[in-house]
Amino acid sequence: MNKYFDSYARNEDDSSELKFQKKLLVIICSFLFICGIVWWLLGYLTMGWNYPTIAAGLFGIMVFVMIIVSHRQKNHTLLIRSTFLGVMIVPMVWQFTIGDLHNSGMVIAWSFLTPLGILIFSSLRPAIIYMMLFVAAILVTILVQPEFYGHPIVIDKPIIKLFYAMNLVTSFTVIFATCAWFVHTIKKEKRLSDELMQNILPSAIIEEMKTTGKTKAKAFTMVTVMFTDFKGFTEVSQRVSAELLVDEIHHCFSEFDRIISKYKIEKIKTIGDAYLCASGLPISNYTHAVDMINAAFEIRNFMALRKKEKEALGEIPFELRIGLHTGPVVAGIVGVRKFQYDIWGDTVNTAARMETNSKIGKINISQSTFELLKDRPDLDFKSRGKIEVKGKGLLEMFFVEKNDAIE
Q: What is the pLDDT of residues 136-189, one digit of tens each?
């Protein structure tokens, strides 16, 4: 049965949302088909052949036929229009024929499914029109008590109670199920949207945007920035297929993402085979240099193990250079389409120079980062002296290792 519901009016280019909408529609309409047949039998047994009985039977048959027709034509709007129009008309026939709300067991409650269904499966404007028609039917029933026959149909009290039970329980069950789906869908889409936003922007920036509707650029006096880059990437890219190249970059960067998340470091962006992240923003802290160097060691060790795996398979491994620098930056969001959280300042440029002047498998840090880490007993530093850097002049650099580092 579920397979049938899944295949209803399915087109190859249907979105996941449309597929689920079609499935919900055919489930509701199948239930309404059963309700139409039950009401036809109940009407015949309690009132004989009359307008309500005939209307219920015709409604059930119509829904069944339209499910088949709309499925074959792959046009679910046919089912929406026919079924929900019938749901509006048939209860009104029952209501107006029997004569009042009480004797009919408030059968008019079923008509509320029409504006609700049109709202969910179609659009707001026709739903408003049907809602106005539903309210008008209620008012006419209460104020005028119309009867097609000129006199009400006599209904026994036990049957009236049965009408109440069936009308209220079944109609409101359908309403509840539909609203539950609607709420579930909204929450699901919101969750997916939040997850997508969290992959693009820091959580603190997301909260600021939710609260104020915008975000302002912010200056940070001290953060630690890390650049990584694969040595000889261009040469490697010419010797392997594009698919394998992208798969390997994805594998490596995914592990980088996991590692920096562990230390609450903010990924800024990737630029080709370069990876840029910053510690100490968007929420300032005093451990940014320590967090970043720990992440750098884990990334370096991961790449060392990955190199062994690739070489064992006879494949070409990536080799990594890492550079760190500490200093002030300005951070914020740029653009209105495909926007991203970015950082600017000389600190970023200097971190990039630390990376380009590093060596394979080494972590090269600047003087400012060294000053924040030099008193840690678990770290060993090797001064490289002052090195000429394009556009920066002479810069003091240090290689850093852990005392128990894997060589």
A: 877 877 776 665 555 566 677 777 787 788 778 877 887 787 778 778 777 777
Q: Which pLDDT score is estimated for 407?
A: 44
- Residue with the larger pLDDT of the pair 119 and 200: 119
Q: What is the DSSP string of 161-198?
A: HHHHHHHHHHHHHHHHHHHHHHHHHHHHHHHHHHHHHH
Q: Are residues 155 and 243 in the same domain?
A: no
Residue reference for tokens 């997916």: 192
Would you state the structure tokens that stand for residue 341, as one six-digit string? Answer: 């959280």
Q: Last residue of a domain, which of 146, 181, 198?
A: 198
Q: By residue range, what is the domain housing residue 336?
A: 203-402
Kindly report whether the peptide bond that precedes residue 282 is cis, defined as omega within 30 degrees of 0: yes
Report the predicted TM-score, pTM, of the whole model to 2 decimal places: 0.60
Q: Are residues 148 and 25 in the same domain?
A: yes
169 and 295 in a single domain? The answer is no
Strands (E) in 257-302, as ranges, are: 266-271, 274-279
Q: How many CB atoms lie within 10 A of CB 259?
A: 19
Looking at the domain assignment, is residue 407 inside a domain? no
User: DSSP class of residue 274?
Assistant: E
CB within 8 Å of 4: residues ≥ 6 apart: none
Instruction: Determine, yes or no, domain membership for 284.
Output: yes
CB 370 within 8 A of CB 381: yes
> Which residue, 168, 198, 228, sits at the end of a domain?
198
Write the secondary structure of 328-367 as one string of H (helix), E (strand) and C (coil).
Answer: EEEEEEECCCCCEEEEECHHHHHHHHHHHCCCCCCEEEEH
Asked if residue 369 has pLDDT above 60, the reply is: yes
Whose structure tokens read 């039950």?
38
